[in-house]
Amino acid sequence: MTVTQRELAGLKPKKNAYYVWDNTRTRGTGRLGLKVYPGGRKTFVYRYYRDGKPVFISIGDFPKVSLSDARERIERFSDMLMQGMDPKSELERQERQKQKEIEEQQAKGSIEELFKSYVAQMKKDGKRTHQSVYRALEKEVYPFIPPETKACDVTTKDLIWALSHMVNRGALTQCNRVRSYLHAAFNHGLNHDYDPANYQKHSKFALLSNPVSLVRIQKSAERVGQRFLSYPELREFMHDIEHEVEGVRASPVMRALLLLCIHTGGQRPYELAASKWEAINWEEKTLLVVADVSKNKRDHLLPLTDTAMDLFRQIKSYSEGNPYIFPHTRDLSKHIRLDSLSQVIARYREDHPHFEHFIPRDLRRTCKTLMGEIGISKELRDRIQNHAMNDVSSKHYDRYDYLSEKRRALEAWEVRLLGVDQDDSNVVPLRG
C-alpha cells in the first residue's frame, strides 16, 4: 500500500534497520522505500532488480526530502527501466560525463595563456616585436578583462570595452595596434587546437570564431606617413649630432647609430643595432645583415662608404671585446635598446623647437626620398633599404646581390650628404 508523509514521520527506530515501501502497484518500474536506521536516521531509497539481485539508489534523507519530492525524483529512474536502461549505470555514466566536462572546462586556456602562446609562436617565428606586443596586451587588456578569463568566454563586447579606453584617451593608433595584436592572437588560438603538436601537452582554447573580427578599426588614425626632412634639415640634424653641439643629449654610440642609419641609405636601426662585428668585412667594406636579424628573413649585403667605415672604426673602442657593434650599456650579452633612439630624437626636438616634428622612422623615409631626388631608381633604393621584393623573379630566382650598383648609389648619396657638388656620372640606375 502507499504510505503518507505522516506515517513516515511516525516510524520509530528498531534494533535493526528496516524498510517501509511505497507500493504504487506498478510492476517493472522499481519501488520507493524508506530505510529506518537504529539511530533514528531515515533515508529514501529506490530499489530495482538487475539479474535477479536488488540494486539500491539513495534519494536523500527524510524529512529534508519530502515524500512527494522523493516520488518525483524516482520518476526518471522508472522511465529508464521502462526503456531498458540500468538507472544506476546510467547515473554513473552521467556523473563521469559531468566530471569530464568540468575537467575540459578547467583545461580551457585563459586569455593570459592565449597571449603567452601567441607571443611564444612570434618568438619562434623570429618576430622581434614579441616582447613589445605582450607588454601592450598586458597594459591595455588586463585592466578590463582579467587574465584568468577563459579565452573562449571573451566576447566582442568585452574587447570593445577594453579598446574604447584607448580611444577615449586619444590613443587611436595604439588602439588599432592592440586590435591587430588581439586579432592575430585569437586567430592563433583558432588554429592552435587543430595542431597535432599542441594536442597532448597544451591547453585547449575551444574557440569557435574570432571575437575581434567585428571590432572596427579607427580609420582616422591610419594616415600614411608623409614627414621627411628637407636636405637643409637633414644637414643641420647631422651636423648637430656629429659635432655634439649644445642641446644634443645623446651618447657617442647612439650618435654613431643615427649617423650610420643615414649614411647607409636609411637602414632599419634594429638591423644595424643587432648586427655583430663579425658581420663587417673590413677589406671588402661590407656589412652582412644576416637572415636572423633581417626583417624579411633574408641575408642583406650592404656596401659601406668611407664615412660609414670611419664611423664603425670610431665606435669599435666603445664595444671592445663585445660581439655586438652596439652593445647594451649594462648587459653585454645584448645589443642596445632601440627605445633609446626615440628618446634621443624626442630630446632633440625639445631642444630645437624650430624643427618640425619628426620621429626615427621619418629618417628612413627621408633617405628614401632624397636619394630619389638625386636620380637613384626606386628599385635600387628598395634593395638598399632591404625591402622584401615580392615579385616571383626576385623571391625565387634572382640571387644576384646588386652589390656594385648599391655601392655606386651609396657613394653618390654620400657625396650629397657631404655637400659636395656631383654630376650625373655618380648615379647608376639598376640595370634592366
Automatic annotation (TrEMBL):
Q: Name one GO molecular function term.
A: DNA binding
- Species of origin: Grimontia kaedaensis
Q: Which domain of life is it from?
A: Bacteria
Segments forming domain Tyr recombinase: 224-411
Record's protein name: Integrase arm-type DNA-binding domain-containing protein
Family to which the UniProt record says this protein belongs: Belongs to the 'phage' integrase family.
Ordered alphabetically, the record's keywords are: DNA integration, DNA recombination, DNA-binding
Q: Where is this region: Disordered?
A: 85-106
User: Which PANTHER family has this protein been placed in?
Assistant: PROPHAGE INTEGRASE, PROPHAGE INTEGRASE INTS-RELATED
One Pfam family matching this protein: Phage_integrase
Give the matching PROSITE patterns.
TYR_RECOMBINASE (PS51898)
Sequence ranges of Basic and acidic residues compositional bias: 87-106
Family annotation (InterPro entries): DNA_brk_join_enz (IPR011010), Integrase-like_cat_sf (IPR013762), Integrase_catalytic (IPR002104), Integrase_DNA-bd_sf (IPR038488), Integrase_DNA_bind_dom (IPR025166), Integrase_recombinase_N (IPR010998), Phage_Integrase (IPR050808)
